[in-house]
Amino acid sequence: MRNMKKIFALFLSIIFILSSSGTILAVENDTYTITIVNPSKHTYEAYQVFSGRLETTSRDSQNFVLSDIQWGAGVNSKELLDDLKVQETRFSKCKSAAEVSKVLSEENNNTQLIKKFAKIAGKHLTQKSGTFSMGGGNSTISGLSAGYYLVKDQEDSVQGYDAYTEFVLKVVANATVTPKSSVPSVSKKVQENSNSAWQKVADYAIGSSVPFQLIGTLSSHWKDYESYSYVFHDTLSKGFTFQSDTIKVFMKNGETKTVINPSNYTVTSTAVSDQCSFEVRFNNLKLIDGLENNSQIIVEYDATLNEQAIIAGDGNPNEVYLEFSNNPNGIQTGQTPKDQVVVYTYELVVNKTDEKKQELPGAAFSLFQMKNNKWESVKTIEAGDSTKFHFKGLDIGKYKLVETKAPAGYNKIEDIIFTIHADYNKEPLPSTLTNISIQDEQGTTISHENGMFQVNIKPTLNNHNIVTTIINKKGATLPETGGRGTQMIYVAGGILIAVSLIGFAVKRKQKNRKKED
């Protein structure tokens, strides 16, 4: 009973006394004021449901008696009474305002009945009373005559990320009320593949399947609605291809995640209302068993990073907002602010030149990435006329660039091992790319005798993301056997032999002459 009274005070703040054993004193004010605690600056209006004479048991008492009760000026009394008889059996025999008020007085701890009465009365309102004014954290409705009033948000006065308050019923005697409203929230996360953490930013290679997660909370008053609509609107950038068959929807209570039966929601990815990529729509959350005020609704799905992905720069943003029932007294909906995550990918361009920095065709390259302690092939570009080699759509991580074929007459370079590292800002959201560095295994920026890496975090068509220039050097020219050099040696040798033979013949002839003499 204590909890019922607490809930009753929280939502309705109703005092309704028809009899007292003490002395009844008339309240002599001509008009009264309702002060509304209104930090969210709603625009309220008051409708008189019952009129009467306001009395109290003593000058200091806050227990007010409304006697001589008649229908108030703010409702269509005939339509209201007829509707009450149809909608609620407790009013089925009532014929007057006094009899209806007597049922309410007898059931003043029955929160559900009071709320039901307020909603029925809210459908038959006619003329509002008093003057509304707003100031600071409080607002007032003044100039009210004695009576029992229904206080509500002005129609169409609540926009965007806000919710209408429940109808408030109040016996007027310079009263203060605190209307209650609350709204759900939504956030989006992406799973980083290097550590499996769910976060606001991640890096992936083109062709990868990227997991996303949508997390929705609930309004603390969602159970007070007759029906509660709840719709995720998710938008993927053009760099992603939605995998509709990967959607899973969960209810999370504490650390326990439970799969929600697909019969409770629909997924739409074509002809959506706001051109988003897809919607997950719950027509009525109240149909889901086990859902509580502190529960979360979680949607998980995958999307493929495709060839239209933006390289570095502003990345590939993805956003979500939540559409939700925001009027416990009607069917209006509001929407949360959008929440965003960003996925980045990178490109390596290898420029091939000779020692004079002239473009040099005829090379071939392979790029490998270290995964699970082994090198896995990323891409191989065969030899041809190209002198620029594009490796588009890279994740952060450790890589090895291998020249698999050098141009004719040139030496191949040694393998280059490097790591792509990226930094992002944390606040304000969404996260943005702030730096890219190419590092060695010790975490320092690296260069090679064959070239140096250069980075650009916002590349353009002709200004690429990560660039390195690979210089090939010519091979050394050494003498060989069987060539022209050998022929020259043979000729030189023949000449020497001929000279020797001539010398020998001259000496022999001279010797023979001496003998003859």
Tell me what you see in this structure.
The protein is mainly β. 15% of the residues lie in helices and 39% in strands. The strands form six sheets. Strands 12, 14, 17, 18, 20, 21 and 22 form a seven-stranded mixed β-sheet that branches. A six-stranded antiparallel β-sheet has the order 11-10-13-19-15-16, with no helix packed on it. A hairpin with a 6-residue loop joins strand 10 and strand 11. The radius of gyration is 43 Å and the shape is elongated. The relative contact order is 0.10.
Radius of gyration: 43 Å
Structure classification: mainly beta
Quaternary assembly:
single chain
Q: Whole-number average pLDDT?
A: 85
Number of helices: 5
**How many strands in all?**
32
Rough outline: elongated
Task: Give the secondary structure arrangement, pairings included.
Layout: H1 2-11, E1 25-26, E2 32-37, E3 44-56, E4 64-71, H2 77-87, H3 97-106, H4 111-122, E5 131-135, E6 138-144, E7 147-153, E8 168-171, E9 176-177, E10 186-191, E11 198-199, E12 201-203, E13 209-216, E14 230-236, E15 240-253, E16 256-259, E17 266-268, E18 278-282, E19 296-305, E20 316-325, E21 333-335, E22 339-344, E23 346-353, E24 364-371, E25 374-381, E26 388-394, E27 397-405, E28 416-424, E29 433-439, E30 447-448, E31 451-455, E32 466-471, H5 484-516
Parallel strand pairs: 2-9, 12-22, 23-32
Antiparallel strand pairs: 1-3, 2-6, 3-4, 3-7, 5-6, 7-8, 10-11, 10-13, 13-19, 14-18, 14-20, 15-16, 15-19, 17-18, 20-21, 20-22, 23-26, 24-25, 24-27, 27-28, 28-29, 30-31, 31-32
